[in-house]
């Protein structure tokens, strides 16, 4: 009989979820908003400090007057969870790109049959990249209230941290979906 020309559903799921995960973790890595500090004593009531893993910004909510590149007077960037995130988030992004290239080669664009082994390997790489971004996001979340902040201020999770979480989870799910391709290798 003729070989089927259909790409397995698990591969399609992996190829949809992982680029979405990449976009979310990229935004989470670059945007300076892993944590928001508000109601800082002796500061205007509408001031919000946004802290990321690379930058800090202050914004007045009333005027939307925003200034980034703020001085790190409290040693926020010296903290281990921030340092770990600075190392692991970019590493995760590079691995995700690598995984997507391998996945594109494995899922077949120009062959009759997908290369299941290659797609499975890509799945493992993407799974690993998702875990690599999930670890710093989780650790940062656990330490969110312990990281240095002006005394008496209010701390909340920032959108960059949420996006990093979501991106990590999408990459893990997409990686698992692609890793299902190994099942096909075993059948052969």
How would you spell out the order of helices and strands? Answer: HEEEEHHEHH
Q: Counting H and I runs of at least 4 residues, what is the number of helices?
A: 5
Structural class: alpha+beta
- What is the CA-CA span between the terminal residues? 16 Å
Query: What is the name of the CATH class?
Result: Mainly Alpha
Strand order of the largest sheet: 4-3-2-1-5
What is the tally of beta strands?
A: 5
Instruction: Work out the radius of gyration.
Output: 21 Å
- CATH fold-level label: Butyryl-CoA Dehydrogenase, subunit A, domain 3
Number of discrete domains = 1
* CATH architecture call: Up-down Bundle
Shape descriptor reads elongated
Q: The biggest beta sheet, please? A: 5 strands, antiparallel
Helix content: 55-70%
Q: What value does the average pLDDT take? A: 91
State the low-pLDDT regions, or none.
none
Q: What percentage of the residues does DSSP assign to strands (E)? A: 5-15%
What can you tell me about this protein's structure?
A 5-stranded antiparallel β-sheet has the order 4-3-2-1-5. It has one domain: Butyryl-CoA Dehydrogenase, subunit A, domain 3 (Up-down Bundle), CATH 1.20.140. The protein starts with 8 loop residues before the first helix and ends with a helix. The chain is elongated, with a radius of gyration of 21 Å. The chain has 5 helices and 5 strands, in the order αββββααβαα. The protein is of the alpha+beta class. The longest helix is centred in the middle third of the chain and has 28 residues. α1 packs antiparallel against α2, α1 packs antiparallel against α4 and α3 packs antiparallel against α4.
